[in-house]
Design goal:
alpha/beta, 6-stranded parallel β-sheet, 2 domains, about 50% helix
């Protein structure tokens, strides 16, 4: 019987991202065993019961030193500490990747925490999130047909990048590459800003005296726009602060655009409103047909 492609993976954070990574590799038949670490024993017990992990880790040194891949699937603010904890114990063949939604801050944390092991870290961002979290949300096919962005470092060797790419491709993902700076600029606009707007709208309504009345009449449009406001507050707090500079620029651009709409309404400018709506509809329709 042939050896599995990945004899052992170690996952820090066994929820949606980390759990789905393990389940996907297991479904592909390329995983030997998965070991999980986390802050909650109850969560780890659930992950084991669901077949996400084979064992609950209790000794980082023992588990990391012979791991093929270590996946950091925690909120990005926790990764700095994890890099420092795993660095002394990484084996020569152990590769580290992550599932963080921001990259410049994670790369900076890796440079500080991994030291001479930095070349073994290949940053990644799977674009397959959902508003649900925890091991119960993990799916073996979460990454099928979805994009995963790698942001390789100058220190990475081609074969190590290729091996991490292969892992994500075996999960069913379409893998592409950007620099960390390109990544954070892109996702500030198309991911982080929409989440911020969704949270802000729901928070605004929640402060109103007639909140219950407003929500009782909210229909599919409100439901679609605000679905992502059900996402993890802790995770999106960390993402917003980690990508603060790029996100501030996007908030300013959106505020400027919103003021254009405000002026059109104030001036009863039907032509301007139709121009904005028509262009937005065209771009949105073309995008969904790709």
């Amino acid at each position: 019987m042939s050896q599995p492609t990945f004899g052992k993976i170690v996952i820090f954070g066994v929820g949606l991202i980390g759990g789905s990574f393990s389940l996907a590799l297991r479904k592909a038949g390329v995983l030997g065993e998965a070991v999980g670490f986390g802050r909650s024993l109850a969560t780890l017990d659930t992950a084991k019961r669901l077949g996400i992990i084979d064992r609950i880790g209790n000794d980082i040194a023992r588990e990391v030193r012979d791991a093929d891949i270590v996946l950091l699937a925690t909120p990005v603010a926790q990764m700095s500490d994890l890099f420092a904890r795993i660095a002394p114990h990484m084996g020569a063949h152990t590769l580290v990747t992550d599932g963080g939604s921001t990259k410049c801050d994670v790369v900076a944390a890796a440079r500080a925490g991994l030291g001479g092991k930095l070349a073994q870290f290949i940053p990644a961002h799977p674009i397959a999130g959902a508003e649900k979290s925890g091991p119960e949300a993990a799916l073996a096919d979460l990454y099928v047909g979805k994009r995963v962005v790698l942001t390789p470092l100058p220190e990475n060797k081609k074969d190590t990048v290729a091996r991490v790419r292969k892992a994500w491709e075996l999960c069913g993902a379409n893998v592409s590459e950007l620099t960390p700076e390109q990544h954070d600029g892109v996702f500030a606009a198309v991911s982080h800003l929409p989440h911020l707007l969704s949270f802000a709208l729901v928070h605004d309504l929640s402060q109103r005296d007639n909140r219950d009345q407003l929500l009782s009449f909210a229909a599919s449009g409100f439901r679609d726009f605000t679905r992502i406001a059900a996402s993890s507050p802790e995770m999106w707090r960390d993402i917003s602060l980690a990508n603060r500079e790029a996100l501030l620029k996007e908030v300013k651009r959106y505020a400027d655009e919103l003021y254009v709409v405000y002026q059109a309404l104030e001036n009863n400018d039907a032509a301007k409103l139709e121009e904005i709506f028509s262009e937005a509809r065209k771009v949105r329709s073309n995008w969904t047909q790709q």
